[in-house]
Design goal:
Elements: H1 16-30, E1 37-38, H2 50-63, H3 79-90, E2 101-104, H4 107-113, E3 123-128, H5 132-140, E4 144-149, E5 168-172, H6 184-196, E6 200-204, E7 230-235, H7 236-240, E8 248-251, E9 257-259, E10 265-267, H8 268-279, H9 285-294, H10 297-324, E11 328-330, E12 336-340, H11 347-358, E13 360-361, E14 363-364, E15 375-379, H12 384-397
Parallel strand pairs: 1-13, 3-4, 3-5, 5-6, 6-7
Antiparallel strand pairs: 2-8, 7-8, 9-10, 11-12, 12-15, 14-15
Helix pairs in contact: 2-9, 3-9, 4-5, 10-12
The protein binds pyridoxal-5'-phosphate.
Protein name: LL-diaminopimelate aminotransferase
Enzyme class: transferase
Catalytic activity: (2S,6S)-2,6-diaminopimelate + 2-oxoglutarate = (S)-2,3,4,5-tetrahydrodipicolinate + L-glutamate + H2O + H(+)
Length: about 400
């Protein structure tokens, strides 16, 4: 008899995006003449940068020639990409060793896989509202989960509470879904809490490239002591439009050491290397060459132009909401705007209202956790034309 994992019974069905699709499809069928504008997407829409395409095409050609063909690469990624990322981090004042960086097929996979190196006896501290992957991957392991509330009183940036004991802490900044961004002082407080409790912070920096204030951390490792308590997950998905191309990286500092339940001290970097070399066979050479090009001078210039385009959308949205007197968070250093539903509407009431009256689609905040009720996420990943038109509809008809 093969038993299956009981913990899967504790997962909530993820209705959010299917329910949105269902409602939108029904609306489109009833109103074929209406132009529906989708502001709910959490996916990029601009194509890959020319520098990335050039690098990948060159790599494809190499794969077709006996002398330059490559088979299995190092599971943790090629040195050329490690070196490019070391330089990138140096650009915001963080010194990494090349073997502290692990290349992967994206932050979502690493986020799920990293649970392998931690005991299931850990208590997990998760923000609410939250990127659902943190929650579900830990439910699958049967771990105890405690929540920290994001709310207007803390600007959706939960801070450590000494009365709460947690072993693993998830932080995401700039945040999905709220667009909120931690300051360096706030991250210092989290690092102090983690060190005091021998906890580990899993820091999701997927949106770091949207930060354009040098005072705002793009990495938790700008806090020096974070090396002793944090793992950073990052991705080229939002930075460079790699959502379909797939490449990310995880930083596990050598200084990060914790005990097993039986009291043995282990270096987490070595554990993660062991885990990856056992269960993963690396990101395709062609993709890693494309990723390397993201960090080149030309690639950075092109990617910054893409980010500037999305950020200008966010600015247009924020300005419209401000004129309308709608309270919101995010929109700077982030492609997301997290707004308070007007007139006391619930998340889904506001969703229905926007769809039926304005033919605009967004994401109900309640889909990201109980604290998201009454809030709503708009994304800046759409076209300029649609962003402007959606805001005109909101300003005129809301
Ligand atoms: C988009 C996103 C990621 C990136 O995931 P990939 O698997 O690298 O595409 C990670 N974390 C958050 C919060 C995200 O929104």
């Amino acid at each position: 008899m093969a038993f299956v994992n009981d913990n899967y019974c504790n997962l909530k069905d993820s209705y959010l995006f299917s329910q949105i699709a269902q409602k939108v499809n029904a609306y489109v069928a009833e109103h074929p003449e209406k132009k529906v504008i989708r502001m709910g997407i959490g996916d990029v829409t601009l194509p890959l940068a020319p520098a990335v395409i050039d690098a990948m095409q060159k790599a494809v050609a190499e794969m077709g020639v006996k002398e330059t063909f490559r088979g299995y690469g190092p599971e943790q990624g090629y040195d050329f990409l490690h070196e490019a990322i070391v330089k990138y981090y140096a650009g915001f004042g963080v010194t990494l060793a090349s073997d502290e960086i692990f290349i992967s097929d994206g932050a979502k996979s690493d986020c799920g896989n990293i649970t392998d190196i931690f005991s299931n006896a850990n208590t997990i501290l998760i923000p609410d509202p939250v990127y659902p992957v943190y929650l579900d991957t830990n439910i699958m392991c049967g771990r105890k989960i405690v929540y920290m509330d994001g709310k207007p009183e803390n600007n959706f940036l939960p801070m450590p509470d000494d009365s709460v004991k947690a072993d693993i802490i998830y932080l995401c900044s700039p945040n999905n879904p709220t667009g909120a961004v931690y300051t360096k002082e706030q991250l210092e407080a989290w690092v102090a809490y983690a060190l005091k409790n021998d906890a580990v912070i899993l820091y999701d920096a997927a949106y770091e490239a949207f930060v354009d204030d040098p005072a705002i951390p793009r990495s938790i490792f700008v806090v020096e002591d974070a090396r002793k308590c944090a793992i950073e997950l990052c991705s080229l998905s939002k930075t460079a439009g790699f959502t379909g191309t797939r490449c990310g990286y995880t930083v596990v500092p050598h200084a990060l050491v914790r005990k097993t339940e039986s009291g043995k001290e282990l270096e987490l970097n070595k554990m993660w290397l062991r885990r990856q070399t056992t269960k993963f066979n690396g990101v395709p050479y062609i993709i890693q060459r494309g990723a390397e090009a993201v960090f080149s001078e030309q690639g950075q210039k092109e990617c910054r132009e893409m980010l500037a385009f999305y950020k200008e959308n966010a600015r247009i949205m924020a300005e419209g909401l401000r004129r309308k007197g709608i309270k919101f968070y995010g929109g700077t250093h982030s492609p997301y705007i997290w707004l308070q539903c007007p007139q006391g509407m619930s998340s889904w009431e506001f969703f229905d209202f926007l769809l039926e009256k304005l033919a605009v689609v967004g994401t109900p905040g309640a889909g990201f956790g109980a604290m998201g009720e009454g809030y709503f996420r708009l994304s800046a990943f759409g076209s300029r034309e649609n962003t402007i038109e959606a805001m005109e509809r909101i300003e005129k008809e809301l």
